[in-house]
Write a structure and sequence with these properties.
The complex is a heterodimer of chains A (401) and B (869). Chain A is α/β, with parallel strands linked by helices. Chain A has 16 helices and 15 strands. Chain B has 28 helices and 29 strands. Chain B is flat, with a radius of gyration of 61 Å. The termini of chain B are far apart. The relative contact order of chain B is 0.04. The chains are: A alpha/beta (401), B alpha+beta (869). Chains A and B meet through helix 3 and helix 4 of A and helix 2 of B.
Chain lengths: 401, 869
């Protein structure tokens, strides 16, 4: 009977863990264009795993980098590989939101355990259905809208706000949350401009001209590193006195190579960050240890490119490790199929029993079981975990606080 | 007579020379062309073939370049699509609008060669496609297409894009892939398929056979004779083979054209040579032959001419260049009376021309002879007897065979009789022309001459024409009283005066009867016209003596000119006539100028005249009635009918305004007829209402008296019609003493019509005339009536007239009774009937009816009053 059951499992492709030695963590990131972000995420993940000797729930784990290059279809191919794999435990997705927005239902329906250290689009973690396989330690655009407006209008005295948004689902969701936050203050944006993913100089010039003529004194920009640089250059030429509150998307690449110091200073660019830089300033043992592990020669976070990726990658892996430890105590883990292990891990993530010390904070608990009434159930970070950062003269970020 | 020496020449020899000349020329020409063909074939054909090969290479390169540019344009379009942000977004999986891509291509200006485009994502999966001729994709190997896509997505930086090429049913189909790039990385690809006809790149080339497109791989194994031209943008090569047969054919055409050109050049050169040779060689031979022939003919002609000259009716004289006679024919001797022996060596002019010979003709002859020119003149010569005669003389120089003059021949005929006839004819013609343009009586030019002169002036666009129109006053009286000889005398005198008082360029004409016209010369003004007219008037008025009797006549003058700008040339005579009319009206013997005022009158009269003609047709004339009263009882005994014209344009018009014009238009009778008929009808209508008008007077002309229609109208009146009285002007009675007139009066009288003499005292009616006419009444001219209250003489004259009328048993009617005093005096001196404004104005029949009814009521009132007393 046992034999026949095993045969049945084999026939169904549901291989057992006994047949595998090592678990895999897919890192679905943009290793081509936004390679700095991808490598930072991987470094964060790898650093956290190093701390536990690359063991998850007692099983060895290895990282499998997957370069999606911003292409949702490549992510989809990775997802299919994940589903076909009997070792892939979870997929850590990064930097770009579109792959996960586009395939959100596929992910949830197929049961792809997706951990997001760097994807901000609000709808990703908020599915309409009952199944929700997303867990995020990242800026959440549903918060960033309120955060941007609070920073710009309430704290820094802006009077009229322009919205300059990447023309993707991410950007459009941003407009909703930013407009709602302004409306709560009886305000509205003086101009809303969208730009395409591969914006050129001409389109950026027209956009900047419209913003300049709108009379806005501040602008919130949601852009990626590459197209953001084009838009910033156009704004520098046509609206140099504009104060800019940028989403963190620009930090995914070599933004500082594209936008020189003078431009950064003149435009008074502030970038949305989680509060790692502030925490570093306030000194943190977890951070110090992580840095030490990740890069022994590093003296500060500034020595790590794309800080966000590193910090969030580290924290979310720390949570993953804790959840795996918790799952390992269930029956599903030692002899279960990969699907069962994923399910056990998901259950543990939703109901983590022990607090997890991360760089940003102690997560207690980081996540909750999904219910549509609990929109932030899969958000480990909240409004209070967001900070603004400014560029230092050397191009690195510092806390703006 | 002299003859040229005869030159013996053989025509056959000349023809033979020409024949040899042309044969030689033709043979040389043929040989030259043949040599050219051989030379061309040996030298030009190898060069041509080399040139053709180079041309094929050049065409291959050009076609490849054109093809390359075309590919470049297609690539550009595909690059544009690949760079479209939405296409990229679809490729990245960020959006899934499957219609966008075909819609985008559909909106772009794609070439007709584009068959299909397939959109692949980064994974090599087809996303969507755009199809024009989608089936053409099947021509390609699927594996090869997939390989092309894979290569493009994995390695996008091809300098020359890989391409697939297939040939199907003789047509070329190729596919090219274009990467979709995002941030320097290929994120998808567009695979585009095209159908291509190479003919459009080789149109017009005759020496290229079946150009083909090859992949680079296939090009490596292409035959050696093919020229290869790789395309720069895609991995394809254009292979071209020269068409040997076409090259050969083109070579043949080259030879053919070359030979044609050389032949044309040689032909031209030989033609020039032939022309020159013909001039230098053949022509002289032919001329020699012709000269020989001509000399022979000349000798024969000379013999014939000599015979003809001997027999000719015309005289023939031959002379040398000095004009000295060398020979004459018998006719000359007969014509002049001189013999050859007498005149040989003499110049004809010396003995043939005499006193009356025209020196100019002699001079003309001398000049012609000196210039060795032919001349033809008509000249007066003298025979040996001294008798003059006219000759038609033709002299022509004589030339030798070399063209040198050596003498003259003079041929003449006697034209004395013909000349006399011609001169007589000319004289007769002149006389006829003169008569046609002149008045035979006075010798003055006539109307036709005037018209001709006016036509000439008009042709010269003269703007300074002045005309004086002259009409003798009372000329008829002269004719009537002194006879037509006296009248003619007067006319001749006037013509003489006109001739003497006018300048040379003035033209005085008699236009008929006693009417003359004087057209002043160029530059004359109306003032000049007035001056000359007054001068002429003064002389015309001067007494003239004819057969011991003195004749006095006067004249009236009308002057009109173009200077005032009032008139057109065509209206000038009419204007002068109008001025003349004014002069007559003003009392004759005077000169009147056609003034602007007169011009306005004429225009007005013209308007009236135009309307008058229409008015007759529209029946616009109506009778007005002026009552006539018994001098004693003051009762109405009749009415005089007066014409009125109720015009649509001029209102109510009295006769003094329209009657003169009506007379000119000869419509007086028609107006009178309308008035008479209406008056009779209206008076008859009154009678039916109990108003009895005893007598109806109407004014009539002499013509009306004689008018049969009037007679019949009166005759056909009903028995209860009023009595009709015809008032005839005293002047008419005097002037119209014709039988017809008198008969007309008698006829009317027989119908009971009263005849009344109107305006008695205004004319020259004689007692005898009155007695002859036997009128029933006389109406005293109001000019005699009006002054009687102030002028005793007038009163006395009137009394005498009335006495005379009583003796003749005539009823006396006084007109112009304007005051009660007039009425009383006229009654007292014996007038029977009174008429005038004192009683009433002329009025229409309705008012007349009211007047009579009112008068009756007054009478009744008076009678009742008297009865009451």
């Amino acid at each position: 009977m046992r034999i026949s059951l095993a045969s049945l499992f084999t026939a169904l492709g549901l291989t057992t863990a006994a047949a595998t030695d090592t678990l895999e963590l897919y890192i679905d990131a943009d290793y081509s264009v936004s390679f700095a972000a991808a490598e930072a995420i991987e470094l964060g993940v790898r650093t956290a795993l190093n701390e536990v000797d690359h063991q998850l729930g007692g099983m060895p784990v290895e990282l499998v980098p997957k370069d999606h290059r911003g292409n949702a279809k490549r992510s989809h191919r990775t997802m299919e590989e994940y589903l076909d794999s009997d070792r892939a435990l979870a997929m850590i997705g990064g930097l770009h939101s579109p792959p996960y927005l586009t395939y959100r239902e596929f992910i949830n329906d197929s049961g792809i355990l997706t951990l997001l250290p760097w994807s901000a689009s609000a709808p990703i973690t908020r599915t309409q259905g009952d199944e929700n396989w997303f867990f995020r330690v990242s800026v959440d655009d549903s918060k960033s809208g309120e955060f941007f407006v609070r920073e710009a209008m309430d704290r820094q005295g802006c009077t009229s706000l322009a919205l300059i948004l990447l023309d993707t689902g991410w950007g459009r969701a941003g407009e909703v949350s930013l407009t709602a936050a302004l409306a709560a203050r009886n305000m509205r944006p003086v101009v809303v401009e969208y730009f395409p993913f591969s914006v050129g100089r001409a389109v950026a010039g027209t956009l900047a001209s419209n913003v300049a003529s709108s009379g806005a004194d501040c602008a919130v920009i949601m852009a990626n590193a590459v197209n953001g640089a084009t838009v910033f250059r156009a704004l520098f030429e046509q609206a140099p006195s504009l104060r800019i509150f940028s989403d963190w998307g620009i930090m995914g690449g070599n933004f500082t190579d594209e936008i020189d110091r003078e431009m950064r200073q003149r435009l008074d660019i502030q970038v949305l960050q989680t509060c790692a830089l502030r925490i570093e300033a306030e000194s943190s043992g977890v951070l110090t240890r992580a840095l030490q592990t990740a890069k022994p020669e590093a003296t500060s976070l500034a020595d790590i490119g794309a800080v966000t990726g590193f910090v969030h990658g580290y924290d979310i892996t720390r949570i993953l490790i804790a959840a795996a430890d918790q799952a390992a105590r269930t029956d599903a883990w030692p002899g279960g199929t990969i699907q069962q292990r994923r399910a056990a891990l998901k259950a543990a993530l939703e109901n983590l029993q022990t607090p997890v010390d991360g760089i940003l904070k102690t997560y207690d608990p980081p996540f909750r079981p999904w219910a549509s009434s609990d929109a932030d159930a899969r958000e480990a970070l909240g409004l209070d975990d967001l900070c603004m950062a400014r560029f230092r003269e050397d191009g690195l970020l510092k806390d703006a606080g | 007579m002299q003859a040229e020496p005869d030159t013996p020449t053989s025509p056959k020899t000349a023809a033979s020379v020409a024949l040899r000349f042309w044969l030689l020329l033709t043979v040389i020409l043929i040989l030259a062309i043949a040599c050219s063909i051989v030379a061309l074939r040996l030298v030009a054909v190898p060069y041509f073939i080399e040139h053709q090969n180079q041309t094929v290479m050049e065409q291959a390169r050009n076609a490849a370049q054109s093809l390359d540019e075309w590919v470049g344009r297609e690539r550009l379009l595909m690059d544009f699509v690949a760079n479209d942000p939405n296409v990229l977004s679809i490729a990245l999986g960020h959006s899934e609008n499957s219609d966008y891509f075909p819609d985008l291509l559909d909106s772009l200006p794609t070439s007709e060669n584009l068959s299909w485009v397939i959109f692949y994502d980064a994974l090599g999966d087809e996303v969507t496609r755009f199809e024009v001729r989608g089936w053409e994709e099947e021509y390609f190997n699927t594996h090869a297409l997939n390989r092309l896509i894979t290569d493009t997505i994995e390695e996008s930086r091809f300098e020359r894009k890989p391409a697939l090429l297939v040939e199907q049913d003789g047509a070329n189909y190729f596919a090219v892939a274009v990467p979709i790039i995002q941030n320097g990385f290929p994120e998808g690809a567009l695979l585009a398929g095209y159908s291509l006809s190479l003919e459009e790149f080789f149109s017009g080339s005759e020496t290229i056979r079946d150009p083909v497109l090859l992949t680079d791989a296939a090009a490596l194994t292409a035959p050696e004779n093919m020229e290869l031209a790789p395309l720069s943008r895609i991995e394809m090569t254009l292979a071209i083979a020269p068409d040997i047969s076409a090259v050969q054919a083109a070579g043949n055409r080259l030879i053919s054209r070359g030979v044609t050109a050389i032949a044309a050049v040689l032909l031209g050169a030989f033609t020039i040579f032939a022309v020159l040779g013909r001039t230098v060689v053949v022509k002289p031979h032919q001329r020699l032959q012709e000269q020989a022939e001509r000399l022979k003919d000349q000798k024969r002609n000379l013999r014939e001419l000599a015979a003809i000259a001997e027999l000719a009716q015309d005289s023939v004289v031959l002379s040398d260049l000095d004009g000295c006679i060398t020979w004459v024919n018998p006719s000359f001797e007969k014509q002049t009376g001189y013999r050859l022996e007498d005149v040989k060596g003499r110049k004809p002019g010396a003995f043939l021309q005499g006193r009356d010979t025209d020196p100019k003709t002699v001079q003309e002859l001398s000049h012609a002879l000196a210039a060795r020119q032919a001349v033809k003149v008509e000249i007066l010569n003298y025979r040996s007897t001294g008798e003059p005669y006219w000759l038609m003389l033709s002299i022509s120089p004589l030339y030798s065979g070399t063209g040198d003059p050596y003498g003259f021949v003079a041929i003449s005929s006697d034209v004395t009789e013909a000349r006399d006839s011609r001169e007589a004819l000319i004289a007769a013609k002149k006389e006829i022309e003169y008569q046609a343009l002149h008045d035979p009586l006075t010798g003055l030019p006539n109307r036709r001459a005037l018209d001709e002169e006016l036509r000439l002036r008009e042709a010269a666009q003269a703007s300074d024409i002045t005309l004086v129109r002259i009409d003798l006053d009372h000329f008829k009286y002269v004719n009537d009283t002194m006879g037509h000889e006296a009248g003619d005398f007067v006319l001749k005198c006037v013509a003489e005066i006109l001739s003497e008082e006018t300048k040379a360029d003035d033209l005085a004409v008699r236009v008929g009867g006693d009417e003359f016209l004087l057209l002043l010369g160029r530059g004359s003004t109306e003032a000049d016209g007035l001056t000359v007219a007054k001068r002429i008037l003064k002389r015309i008025r001067a007494p003239k003596s004819f057969e011991d009797k003195t004749i006095r006549v006067g004249a009236s003058f009308g002057v009109a000119g173009l200077a005032g700008g009032l008139l057109h040339k065509d209206d000038l005579i009419i204007a002068a006539d109008a001025a003349l009319y004014e002069a007559k009206e003003a009392g004759r013997n005077r000169v009147h100028l056609y003034t602007p005022e007169l011009h306005n009158q004429v225009l007005s009269r013209r308007d009236i005249a135009r309307e008058l003609r229409l008015a007759v047709g529209r029946d616009e004339f109506e009778p007005f009635f002026q009552a006539q009263y018994d001098a004693r009882t003051r009762r109405i005994v009749g009415v005089e009918t007066l014409a009125r014209w109720r015009s649509q344009d001029f209102g109510l018009v009295t006769p003094n305004r329209f009657l003169p014009i009506a007379e000119q238009l000869s419509i007086v009778e028609e107006i009178d007829d309308q008035i008479l008929r209406k008056a009779i009808a209206q008076i008859m209508a009154l009678r039916e209402q109990g108003i009895d008008i005893p007598k109806l007077s109407v004014n009539v002309t002499a013509a009306r008296v004689q008018d049969r229609a009037v007679y019949e109208l009166i005759r056909d009146l009903p028995s209860n019609a009023p009595e009709i009285a015809f008032e005839v002007l005293e002047s008419v009675l005097v002037e119209e003493q014709t039988d017809a007139f008198l008969m007309g009066l008698d006829n009317l009288r027989e119908l009971g019509v009263h005849i009344e003499v109107d305006d008695f005292g205004s004319g020259h009616a004689s007692i005898i005339g009155l007695m002859k006419l036997r009128p029933d009444a006389m109406k005293i001219d109001q000019r005699l009536v009006m002054p009687i209250l102030e002028d005793p003489v007038s009163l006395g004259v009137l009394e005498q007239i009335i006495s005379m009328a009583k003796l003749m048993e005539l009823t006396v009617v006084a007109e112009g009774v304007e005051t009660p005093e007039h009425a009383d005096v006229l009654t007292r001196i014996g007038c029977h009937v009174l008429q005038g404004y004192h009683f009433c104005m002329p009025m229409p029949v309705e008012e007349l009816q009211n007047l009579i009814l009112s008068s009756r009521r007054n009478d009744q009132t008076i009678r009742r009053a008297i009865g009451g007393v």
